[in-house]
């Protein structure tokens, strides 16, 4: 019997099950060690896991230019989006120019991964500023590619450290457009596709109600209590449905693949 | 007849940049920024710059920290694994600089427009965001062919472009490695946006090399105004293929940058105190620099 799944393994499997065959997946850059783990290393493991379990025709664009790399042969822990070591990562294709932007602009990317300092109840994300834009309390790195993730891609998986201050009713700045102020608002500003499909944290999964477009608690990870989730969620709307299930545990097969094939040396996910 | 020799000293090349210039520094994230040139601009006191950029790091952060940037057009200023850019953050939080921000591909495309002689780029990717609300340079436009409304953003149009590249000859032919990464491709695009181009290089190579490798001569000599030989001229950033970023130094920068006093001390040590590039390299130390070298990235 294998040892129980870690929170990261639960998250990786949750992402993998959200990814379908014959899709294009895009993974971009991140800032700071915590975000690099959640937004870069975790989805890489999930993407290869999906390719090995049910999505052999999918295609992953890592940092937009390294395509279908062999995760087990990663030269480092993805601290930067570029670099000499990454240029030697075994992969199926390199694509070193702006082609990725063109693929995105043509709406050919199905899934992206995003994170932010703030996410709100409609899934809007903020990587620009906390407080007023003109004189912010905390200035963040900037929009980077987040606008395109939420407007051009088919759907966005938002991955957040589950802390109260990150979950707000309304973001101070929209750099990634979720459902904006509610139903039909995306359509009213000309966004006819895409948007966030889930918020995944180290404690739970939120999805968006089809009618209200509000973030709703979909499942809680094994070993986590509802009280723990509520104590660490800053939303003030009623996001807890009458019945909340547990996030499905990884199967033996999935755990074996993660631990022995995809990330055998524990380079990507902490053990 | 011999062509013009474009080789210049660092101080002469930096003196070409006047106060108030509109300038782009090459490189992306923590890679390939012309850091030696940035340090020299700070030494020379060049100020009131408008920096037009896309994905910036310690290059722009240091200039902002030294108080030399009036306006910044950009998508990202940060240090990747080392976190937020400390001086940029401090300056914006105290409303010291004017900002004009775009999504990343749009910031790239502004340079592609200039390189193609096109006045503006159209996109829908910033729909729904607050960027058009805070950035008056993002305007609405209607497709004359009837597909609806778009955002228009102006071409980058830098007056000056400064990039760091592996090799050049003294006439200004600039050689690149064949398997380029995006930071290098973006530099090539930027190099085509103005005739006021300064290229700092790791090494000046004999003119004969260009004739042997014409397919790597991606910036031919009719383009640069000046080339400057600056080994480790991107330090502490990487120069792709040649050496890696100095993670210890960048980590140190991220830390000392958070406090104006320790940042002043950093400038005093690495910029003003080290009065030129040779002294800077001496200060970093030969052994440390040798340890950053990338196997297979030998020049010549």
Features:
heterodimer; A: 271 residues; alpha/beta; Glutaconate Coenzyme A-transferase; 10-stranded mixed β-sheet; 3-stranded mixed β-sheet; 15 strands; 21% strand; globular; B: 300 residues; 3-stranded antiparallel β-sheet
Could you characterize the architecture of this molecule?
The complex is a heterodimer of chains A (271) and B (300). Chain A has 271 residues and is α/β, with parallel strands linked by helices. Chain A has one domain (7-262): Glutaconate Coenzyme A-transferase (3-Layer(aba) Sandwich). Chain A is built from 7 helices and 15 strands. In chain A, helix 1 (7-18) crosses helix 2 (33-53) and helix 2 (33-53) packs across helix 7 (252-262). The longest helix of chain A is centred in the first third of the chain and has 21 residues, at 33-53. Chain A starts with 6 loop residues before the first helix and ends in a 9-residue tail after the last helix. The model of chain A has no long low-confidence stretch (mean pLDDT 95). With 300 residues, chain B is α/β, with parallel strands linked by helices. Chain B folds into 2 domains: 10-102 and 158-292, Glutaconate Coenzyme A-transferase (3-Layer(aba) Sandwich), CATH 3.40.1080; 120-154, no CATH class. Helices cover 34% and strands 21% of the residues of chain B. In chain B, the strands form 3 sheets. In chain B, strands 1, 2, 4, 6, 10, 11, 12, 13 and 14 form a 9-stranded mixed beta sheet that branches. In chain B, helix 5 (104-116) packs parallel to helix 7. The two termini of chain B are 26 Å apart. The model of chain B has no long low-confidence stretch (mean pLDDT 97). The interface between A and B is large, with 55 and 59 residues.
